[in-house]
Design a protein that fits this description.
Elements lengths: L6 E5 L3 E7 L14 E7 L1 H11 L3 E8 L3 H11 L8 E3 L6 E7 L5 E6 L8 H6 L1 H5 L3 E5 L4 H13 L3 E5 L8 H5 L3 E2 L3 H8 L4 H11 L4 E5 L5 E4 L5 E4 L12 H14 L4 H15 L12 H9 L1
Parallel strand pairs: 1-4, 1-8, 2-6, 4-5, 8-9, 9-10, 10-11
Antiparallel strand pairs: 2-3, 6-7, 11-12, 12-13
Helix pairs in contact: 1-9, 7-8, 9-10, 10-11
């Protein structure tokens, strides 16, 4: 498989994640004791960039951090990964993005994010990375950064001939210009329901597909795998391997990063989704965000089993 132009550019968020492990998720007004606490690198953009790099794609990450101590921790952690960080901006008088993640005994989670420097990643900062973005085979972004910055990233990628992927997370009203710049839309079941008004994933994919008539819609469905609706075609279900989930954090990011890397390396959409579903399944078997993001060998082993 040729690696010519096999590059992925991820434009997105980076956080310092604090994870609390609990027996059950707290109800409103309830105080509970955590069984464990840990801090680690996170953020949808960083997770997806690392996932892409671990799948063998040359990956550049465009993001913003502050100048506080947590930002220094983030930069050190990113530096340990095989990423091009040329366009990682350190903003003066800025705070690192941070997330509080609560995970229960069954692996379900709730997440609250303080955007910090991620909210200051402007379209101008994205334009500064234009030469790198225009050379990419795939451009991937999410919505933990300002939508205008995400849209500019997709537009620059499209102008350079890249395949453009939007993970609309967290779900929010999508500007027509943002949708128009998107070749592949990848929401999870909850996001697809919010965006479409349909609770059934297949019905949601149909609604979203009509809103993006020239684009592919992929709805990730956790243990059920993923639904793929290509323009003018039927919805196809890709089943997931059977695994024991311990932590669902970053499973969607594993999917998106693996999808981007697989497409950049020349795999068909079907092959890429097959590997992405396996990557998401692998991720739920490992605690933590970055530690759960699989390598190519991890995905190969799960698929062969």
């Amino acid at each position: 498989m040729s690696d010519a132009k096999a590059s992925v550019v991820v434009v997105g968020s980076v956080n310092l994640d604090t994870t609390l492990e609990v027996e059950h998720l707290p109800a409103p007004g309830e105080t509970i004791l955590a069984r464990d606490l840990r801090s680690a690198l996170g953020g949808k953009g960083a997770n997806q960039a690392i996932a892409s790099a671990r799948q063998g794609a040359r990956t550049a990450f465009v993001a913003a951090v502050g100048d506080d101590a947590p930002s220094g921790t983030i930069m050190e952690a990113l530096g340990a990964e095989a990423l091009d960080l040329t366009h990682l901006r350190r903003l003066t008088r800025g705070l690192a993005g941070q997330a509080l993640i609560i995970v229960d005994a069954a692996g379900a989670n709730t997440i609250v994010v303080a955007a910090g420097a991620n909210a200051r990643l402007s379209p101008a900062e994205v334009v500064a990375a234009a030469p790198t973005i225009r050379e990419a085979a795939v451009v991937l972004t999410q919505l933990e950064i300002p939508p205008a910055a995400a849209q500019r990233a997709l537009e620059l990628g499209r102008a350079g001939g890249a395949l453009t992927i939007l993970n609309p997370a967290p779900a929010q009203p999508l500007d027509p210009g943002l949708l128009a710049a998107c070749d592949i839309l990848v929401p999870n079941e909850t996001e697809a329901a919010i965006l479409s008004g349909e609770r059934d994933p297949e019905a949601a994919a149909e609604v979203l597909g009509r809103r993006l008539p020239g684009s592919t819609v992929i709805v990730t469905c956790g243990a059920a795998g993923a639904l793929v609706r290509r323009p003018g075609g039927p919805t196809v279900v890709f089943g997931a391997p059977s695994v024991v989930a311990v932590d669902t954090v970053a499973a969607g990011d594993a999917f998106c990063g693996t999808l981007a890397a697989s497409l950049a390396r020349g795999r068909s959409l079907e092959q890429a989704v097959h590997r992405a579903v396996a990557a998401g399944s692998y991720a739920v078997t490992v605690r933590g965000a970055v530690p759960s993001l699989p390598t190519t060998a991890d995905v190969d082993r799960l698929l062969s089993s």
